[in-house]
Amino acid sequence: MSYKPLDSVSISDIVDLGIPPETATQLHEKLTEIIKTYGSNTPETWTQISTRILDPDLPFSFHQMMYYGCYVDFGPDPPAWLPDLEDAKSTNIGSLLERQGNKLLGPSYKDPVSSYQAFHEYSVSNLEMFWKTILDGMSVSFSVPPNCILVDDPSQESQLLHPGGQWLPGAYVNPAGNCLNLNSKRKSSDIAVIWRDEGDDESPVNKMTFEKLRSEVWLVAYALEKLGLEKGSAIAIDMPMDVKSVVIYLAIVLSGYVVVSIADSFAASEISTRLVLSKAKAIFTQDLIIRGDRSIPLYSRVVDAGSPLAIVIPTRGLSFSMKLRDGDISWLDFLEQAKSYKNVEFVAVERSVEAFSNILFSSGTTGEPKAIPWTLATPFKAGADGWCHMDIRKGDVVAWPTNLGWMMGPWLVYASLLNGASIALYNGSPLTTGFAKFVQDAKVTMLGVIPSIVRAWRTKNCTAGFDWSTIRCFGSTGEASNVDEYLWLMGRARYKPIIEYCGGTEIGGGFITGSLLQPQCLSAFSTPSLGSSLFILGTDGIPIPANVVGVGELALNPLMFGASSTLLNANHYDVYFKGMPSWNGKILRRHGDVFERTIRGYYRAHGRADDTMNLGGIKVSSVEIERVCNSVDDRILETAAIGLTPAGGGPEKLVIVVVFKDANDSTPELNSLKQSLNKALQKNLNPLFKVSDVVPLASLPRTATNKVMRRVLRQKLTQIGQNCKL
To answer: Which of 248, 507, 520, 647 would bridge with 81, disulfide CB 3.0–4.6 Å?
Structure first.
């Protein structure tokens, strides 16, 4: 659709969008005034329009008219938000730079906005001082301080054993203990968790103080010790992310055990795989998941997975809807074992920083998920990203619909509590008006999203009528976003910035993101995360020069605080380093995404370079999907699962390429087959997976060694995308 330049927009153009003539006249007068002062096509013009004219009640088509009209001749990457210098100075990083900018950057320091790029360069060239400054800024406490921040031995042997260096050597610490410590960031009376259950949307939000959270976590920690497990044992959590699961998570880490993160949407076979890989000794779960009028079994899936000892929480009341398995215990009986310790402080079990705190999972290309341990350092990477880039601080209320089975669940816990903020949890679907009302009532200041949630909000208009003005910024991760959808999202909170955030489970946070000290462009990243540097590989596999426009596979500087150094079921070096090019004597770390650096210095994601795809924020391998699809119908010879990015941008769509046994069967019932594939995938892998289209082919393209060339298929399907109904 073409848009007029702003100085050509008339009152009648505005009326044509369904806006009453009197209102249209007032809007046009304000627009004319802004154009006289700032011109018709500058970023400052858009800033004035977005803050002085636009509001959530005006038709989104008017927002589009203003945005696209302002930037009609601007070219690529028009900024949707500009930092205000005074606001920038009050951010965590801005305040740090105002205090120490001259010390860190020398006389070239000017202000937090002008000097942000110089500070990023400082953060990667002075890792020792940068991370000491950030950990001090977050008030991280160690029972035994580290000998130093980083040991990076250049010897060949050390580079093979520790290509990412050794962080905080000699330190003993407990990240859950740091979340609960009372200090300048938190008092016992401060609110730690705010929550509401779906269906109670007219009731006041529930609040838990740090004093109450500490007491609840201590009690669970004492009860855990009554199980008689060795310190360092793995204990799984498979339940929705609510206040109880947060308490359990913190208690497991506080008492010196290791959390095994399992998403509550997984089928029994996927639960079993994760329990076996982690060697979990116990699991916390609940009998049912309630979503609206639906009751979704959870405990029965855990039982079918052949789980170890289960501690089971009743979803409603004190009783269960089914009989517990012999040996399993109820939540109340579990707590009863520690009743004499109620309100008695549990002293955090401090362990070596290299010990594990959490085992999470990310799909590999071989079908079996990668079992990725977080060390006791990794939580501080999550907290640091929240402190540096989302500007999370004391008094903030942070909401991000997620689950402890995905890295953003633990990230939310640490990024909020380590920084003195409150976690906001809605126990229900985030796609409803109930969630939108919760954001309003909880007075959320940082709202995290994935693009598919935003699309549902816009389609259903379920945010209409709710006041989101307390939001200071949005965060977005999980999948590629769409410009129009994110323009709409910004408009719900009167054009607060969206901080795009991309990383990985194996990193514990992000490697590329945005900053409140830089202009933000829709569906783009403005900076590598502080303390991280990245490289775009050219067609020859060598990094293209810094700040040069290009597209290619992304590689990372291996010296990343908190990043993984081992895998439980694969050779870490082979997965992340083998075959990668070197830069300044350091072998680069593989990530697997394709990225573009644009002419204006932003970055855009272009999907996976390997055979892993991202469906609704969930990474899954093609092999996992194909394994299910191949057995759906006897007519199928083989399948190939391909993730395609729509032409207009946005999340990947799943297309299944099917080769039939009977090559002459050219008119199979593809709609019926698609339904069968969806049913099988949702039952056996994840209920959130959905096949966008089924495409029949006579054969699959293969290499000389018989490997399916999914990249070739992806290119072919992209060319015929419209026929694939993408």
So the answer is: 520
Closest-CA residue to 452 (of 408, 491, 497, 485): 485
CA angle 316–433–489, rounded 5-degree value: 130
> What pLDDT was estimated at residue 722?
43
Q: How far is CA 284 from CA 84, 247, 307, 484, in A?
A: 46, 11, 10, 41
Percent of the chain with pLDDT over 90: 79
In Å, what is the CA distance from 21 to each residue of 15, 24, 26, 32? 6, 5, 9, 16
CA dist., res. 351 & res. 171, Å (int): 8
Q: What SS3 class is residue 196?
A: strand
Q: Which two tokens stand for residue 253?
A: 């880490």
Instruction: Report the C-alpha gap between 403 and 607 in whole angstroms.
Output: 23
Length of the chain as a residue count: 726
Contacts of 327 (CB under 8 A, 6+ apart): 309
d(Cα 269, Cα 276) in Å, to the nearest integer?
11
| Orientation angle between helical segments 60-70 and 43-52, nearest 10 degrees | 160
Where b means 16+ CB within 10 Å and e means fewer, 693-722 reads: bbbbeeebeeeeeeebebeebbebbbeebe
Are 505 and 405 contacting, i.e. CB atoms less than 8 angstroms apart? no
More confident site: 266 or 712: 266
pLDDT, tens digit (0-9, with 9 covering 90-100), for 679-704: 999 988 888 899 999 999 988 887 55
Residue 483 · residue 355 · CB < 8 Å:
no
Contact 659/636 with Cβ under 8 angstroms? yes
User: In the predicted model, what is the mean pLDDT of residues 115-140?
Assistant: 97
Q: What is the pLDDT of residues 527-567, one digit of tens each?
A: 999 999 999 999 888 999 988 999 889 999 999 999 999 99
Residues 6+ apart with CB under 8 A from 690: 615, 654, 678, 681, 682
Instruction: Quote the tokens at residue 693.
Output: 């289209």
The whole-model pTM stands at 0.88
Three-state SS sequence of 304-336: HCCCCEEEEECCCCCCCCCCCCCCCEEHHHHHH
- Look at residues 403, 474, 305 and name the one whose alpha carbon lies nearest to residue 688: 403
Contact (Cβ atoms closer than 8 angstroms) between residue 638 and residue 630: yes
Burial class (CB in 10 A: 0-12, 13-18, 19+), 99: exposed
